[in-house]
Amino acid sequence: MYWGSAAFLAPWIVALYEEQSVNGVAYHLHLVRFGVSLLMVLGMLATAAGCWRNSHFTVVFGTFTATLTIISAWFATVTTTGHSFALALGYALIVQLPVALLCAWIVRRLFRPLGEHTGPPTGVVPILTLGALALLPLVVVLSHGLPSQHAAHHLRLVWTGLDVFELIGLAATGWCLYRRLASVAVAAAFTGTLLFCDAWFNVVATTGAVQLAGIAMAFVELPLAALSFAVARREVKGWPEASPRRSAAILGR
Description:
Layout: H1 2-19, E1 24-27, H2 29-52, H3 58-78, H4 82-109, H5 125-145, E2 149-152, H6 155-179, H7 184-204, H8 208-237
Antiparallel strand pairs: 1-2
Helix pairs in contact: 1-6, 2-3, 2-5, 2-7, 3-4, 3-6, 3-7, 6-7, 7-8
């Protein structure tokens, strides 16, 4: 299924690049930013809780948070220009990039070779928790301070770039399932997050016929996203206390 979806997505990316307009209008920006930022905060708290409980599900939470944060920064910086671009870039460099790197480091730590595994790093628990709580008021202020709509630039790059990320995620998930690798938990969580973000931006940031097309696409993207998270969850649940690099709990075992 994953390789088939990747094969279908490849020509779609080419067609989208050819047909997508360069500039357009983004709608409901306060809702778009608030929803994504709130999920980032919740992801940080879930990752912190996973570290504190020494849970393997930290891999899924950390991957979700890092991916969501990077995609949010991607959309905000690429679609804006001038003063708005400077603000988006500053927020990305000061807030989003450190959060994404920290979560990615946590996930990477959990995939050390067997015998060196030391569990989730508990030292990051207060950093993630206090950071998430400190970001809450900033999320509210930024969300309400945005205009309801504004001109969006470089849409061809934004949408084809996101689809390329999804293609990589789908292919990687299919490969990890085929090879029975424990890293399918990361690949599937990465893919599920991308698909969710794609549906979110397609539906919430558009209007009219484009929004209807986004809703139709969401009926494909969201079930596949749910399946991806289910794959990641099942993989992680099958890990023993010292996580092996290869899976013992793959679909079809």
